[in-house]
Amino acid sequence: MKRNSTQTVSTLRRSLLTGTAASIALYFTAPANAQSFPNRPLRLVVPFPAGGGTDAMARALGDALTRDLGQSVIVENKSGAGTVIGNDAVAKSQPDGYTLLLNTSAIAIVPSLHPKLPYPSEAAFAPVILLGRAPNVAVVRTNSPLKSAEDFLVQARAKPGQFSYGSAGNGTSTHLAAELLKSTANLFVPHVPYRGAAPAMNDVMAGQIDLAFGTLPSVAPLLAGGKLRALAVTSAKRSPLLPDVPTFAEAGVPGYDADVWYGVFVTGATPPPIVEQLHAAIRRAAQTDTFRRRAAAEGLALTLDNPQETGRIVRAEEAKWRQVIKAQSIKAE
């Protein structure tokens, strides 16, 4: 009995010591495990140069997120290769939610333009939110003989190759919007690529090309100043900023839709709870007055789609642009 009692006391002592050690360990580790996301600054990567519309939107969003999350959101511009450089930086970041990407519909275009991407396009990103959509605009000089979108479609069909159009460059949203229109409406209108919107608009005004496709922010001041005239917007619905300008669908190309959308992404392996938390925070930030004003300046109609719907939209857009790029034999610059 004495031996058994001794063994019992020894066993009890070991249990108490083990339990005490576990309690001490839990005491010191629990606060770290309980820390909520985020607990340090975040990076918001923009795959475009500083000073542009997407950069301005990112900075407005970053400011609103900083106030919402209580952590700094640092905007980093990593431009080049049609957004591939910035995309790659985020795709290869730690899957912890601290590195975000704000990109346009370009993210759904580059897989077809760059077949050898440095990241796996199908699994590289987890969608967080689709912020909204904005149209491109087809414009002509004020004294152009093309009086309307319907007039352009009729004349372009009757005189194949006689009219030319300009864009901000090969593979840009403005280029692909026009190429989708050509394939949908069965048009032959030669493309003149430029390095940016400004030189394309200058050549339209000078009569060097017949029309151009531009983003709404790039053409809005020229339209307001009477230097250009809008034929149509490329979106499915009219823009609130250009309510009198019809869509190409209204002009006789049913089903045509080639707007630009803006979304936020993180690297693909990011845990779903962090993605959902980021979605909720960005949704709140996007509804602030400051961000709404910035979005309106870009012609953006906010949609704030959830991660699942954003993923569906991206996949559908990838398929659409893959078909256009293949059919029109489009190459990256």
Description:
The chain has 333 residues and is α/β, with parallel strands linked by helices. It folds into two domains: 42-134 and 260-327, D-Maltodextrin-Binding Protein, domain 2, CATH 3.40.190.150; 136-233, Periplasmic binding protein-like II (D-Maltodextrin-Binding Protein, domain 2, 3-Layer(aba) Sandwich). It has helices at 2-34, 53-69, 84-91, 106-113, 149-158, 173-185, 197-206, 216-224, 272-286, 289-297, 307-327, and strands at residues 42-46, 73-77, 99-104, 125-134, 136-141, 165-167, 191-193, 211-215, 228-233, 260-267, 301-305. Strands 2-1-3-10-4-11 form a six-stranded mixed sheet, with helices on both faces. α6 (173-185) links the parallel β6 and β7 (191-193). The N and C termini lie far apart (90 Å).
For this entry, give a set of tags.
D-Maltodextrin-Binding Protein, domain 2, 6-stranded mixed β-sheet, 5-stranded mixed β-sheet, alpha/beta, 333 residues, 11 helices, disordered N terminus
Give the helices and strands as they follow along the chain. HEHEHEHEEHEHEHEHEEHHEH
Q: If strands are numbered along the chain, what order do they take across the biggest sheet?
A: 2-1-3-10-4-11
Tell me roughly what share of residues is in helical segments: 40-55%
Count of helical stretches: 11
Shape: globular
CATH superfamily of the largest domain: Bordetella uptake gene, domain 1
CATH class of the largest domain: Alpha Beta
Query: In the CATH scheme, what's the topology name of the largest domain?
Result: D-Maltodextrin-Binding Protein, domain 2
